[in-house]
Amino acid sequence: MNIAVSSQEVIEREQKAMFQVYRRLPIAVRHASGCRITSIEGDSYLDFLSGIAVNALGHGHPRLVDAVVRQAKSFMHLSNVFYQEPQIELAELLVQHTGYARVFFSNSGTEAMEGALKLARRWGNMRGKTEIIGFMGGFHGRTYGALSIMAKPLYKDGMEPFLPNALILPFNDSEALRRAVHRKTCAIVLEFLQGEGGIVFAEPEFVNTILELQEQFEFLIIADEVQAGAGRTGKFFSFDHFLVKPDIVTMAKGIGGGLPLGAILAAEHLEDVWAKGMHGTTFGGNPVACAAGIVVMRELYGGVMRNAREVGCYLRTNMMILQQQFPAIIEEVRGCGLMAGLKLSVPAAPVVEELLKRFVIANATADTVIRLLPPLIVTRLEVDECTAALQDVCKHISTT
Ligand SMILES: Cc1ncc(COP(=O)(O)O)c(C=O)c1O
User: Fold this and answer.
1) pLDDT score at 4
2) Is the domain of 226 the same as that of 280?
3) What is the pTM of this model?
């Protein structure tokens, strides 16, 4: 591998060799540890993005790294032709902690969603139910099934056709949902806390409407917990903040702690919908990724989820104080636990750039929302550091 001497050199090489689809930060990384990322130039950044909600245990967590190395030395890939204990142990932990009956492992969030849609479609086809409903502001991945229940034109334009019998409705609009649901509705897919959509919670009244309609029309609820799940909101799932148990859950991101791992969890009544051979993957449930997942689960239930709750509360309080100081800039503090959003009255992208100049990494979502997704091991001191940087940026904006 070439050893680059500057971020600029790496940026130029990327521009020559790779599809230009990512809006990257202008940083090439040399090293990352805990909540810090160090650039090739030696600049140290505070990571309030966690690889977009992936590095739940931060970077280089010793027990995570140790488990990965040990598993890689033992066996790195066998295929799902074999029984592999890391997979089974992680599935057991998920079943035990969530009450779901069955687990299927994928490599990513979008693949988990494809599997969930296939499972729902097969369940629905046996009952004459064919329609799937998604919501505006929802994000489920970049594959065709996921895109078919998403609205944002940037992700879809010119790439038609998408799946038939897929409907996209406004989020949190109970009336629109009532008008759309009927006996052919097969499944409703939602993020109970929308991430890419701007850190927006489902309203309790909307969730009640979904449950009421489910009672009446018998469809499946699929919860996309890829971003908000795995302890990020201080509870294992974001829907744990409501009195609801979806039929199917998709997970990814945080559950692998940095390795590519996704999962579909299904309730007991769905355990026989798939027979052998009906779904599968070569890499899904990779033993190294599952070894990482086991450590993530143990750490989450060993105190990290409590940290997400407590430090999340502290972060929220800090953000609300900032909102009081800069009401003309910060319109609303959103989110829960360590999934926070600041709805701004100004575009978020320049604020992210200013934060970066102050060595704090966050990102912009839904144009005017600053999204903060620190590792779940983040400390109050690190939250203070991020708050100080944000305060400084707000001061800078107010005076320019
Ligand atoms: C809620 C949600 N679902 C699904 C996905 C897709 O996951 P992946 O990028 O691993 O395919 C994402 C990714 O950002 C997400 O935030």
Assistant:
1) 73
2) yes
3) 0.98
